[in-house]
Fold this protein.
Amino acid sequence: MEHVENSDRLAQDPRFNPSYPQRVHVGERAHWELLLKTWSEKISALESAGTSLDPRTTAQIQGAKDQIAEAVRRLPGEVGGLYHEDRHRLEEAVRALERIFQKIGRA
């Protein structure tokens, strides 16, 4: 039987290919999904309370929520710079929602 070096085995197995960075953020999925759920519930409560909002604010809320949802979908599989870029977008969307809710007195 031929002896196979560990480095040779890694080169043959694409899950361990150094060209493909390890996805180290997979375990964060539950955290991000909870964040999305929390904001979705806050937005739903705002809508069900019959709070009158101008169309621009409504669009901003929906846009920020969509941005959070997209980041939540992408973040667990991202690595390196893409992870940090998506996380930054998510954090900006959360800050935008916080400002809107503070502005309308629902903070």
About this structure: The chain has one domain: 25-103. The mean pLDDT is 84. The first helix runs from residue 6 to 12. The two ends are 68 Å apart (CA to CA).
